[in-house]
Amino acid sequence: MATSLPTSEPLHTVQLDGLVVLKIIKHCRESYPVDVTGQLLGLDVDGVLEVTNCFPFPSSDDDEASAQYQLDMMRCLREVNVDNNTVGWYRSAHLGNFMDLNLIDTQYNYQNSLSAQSVVIIHDVSKSAAQGNLSLRAFRLTDAFMKAYEKKSFTTESMAKNKLTLSNIFDELPIQVHNSHFVTALLHELDTPTVDADRLPSLTTFTSTQKTATLAEDNAPLAPNFEVLDLELDPFMQKNLENLIDCADAQQQEHNNHQYWQRSVAREQTKIQAWLTKRKQENAQRAQVGQPPLPEDEVHSIFKLPTEPSRLESMLLNAQIHNFTKQLNQFAGPSLGRLYSVQELQK
Question: Which InterPro entries does UniProt cross-reference here (predicted)?
Fold first, then answer.
């Protein structure tokens, strides 16, 4: 796989070509609700990651076939003089549910093996449909998290030492959509309202007032929207609440596992203290009869403290809970506002 050119300036913006945006949307929506992935191609220049092309990954579970497919695609693009520098990958998501170990591991491999400037683009299909706005977000792992993940040490002590929290797992970068001048001119042309010549009076009698009235007729105001009076909760909110409950249950399970580890450590430490007390008593008796004392460092070979379970899963669950609650805050306002308005009207 080809990689992007090295750069010393940190990234501050991700620039997507309009063609890349359309390809990502098409691939993710056609495969919805199955999550899909793809490759991003381009170049990073002066802190701006320019993504100029992309292609989807096959949905096959065969890793060897998928790797061969990527190599073949890169070779074909190089032969037709298309950008073939790997700058990251993209992935579809459902209702903001994307922070998992698979995402962490894949992004770590991209930043560690291919390019430190690699990013992952997340396209949330369901959120885009619910809000009516395109949901595209760009992330990369922070340097502190990269160092911690390399050591595979996510204990409470190591996380406190490295100051790792759910807020510094990823760096989110702003996204800009870039189009060529020809595409921009076409978009402005399509945005300009047109008037049917057959519907206009003759040029000699066509006044500015008639022209304004004709354009107003073509662009008639929207009909009244009675959906805003619907008192039912948004399905998007209901699904977010379900996901939030699932994350809370999983977080409770992680908490129970950590408490079990703490109890196991406490039991072993009690055994260690009892063994040391007994050994000290034996050494005191041996000293009275002139015998050499027995070693006390044998305690480390006799007793082994349980290994603390990784706290990474718990931190990712916290990040997911934060994401779901943030989305609920965005949608709860209009829904609750309607309910309170109706309550006041009923009074």
Answer: eIF3h, eIF3h_C, JAMM/MPN+_dom, JAMM_MPN+_peptidase_M67A, MPN
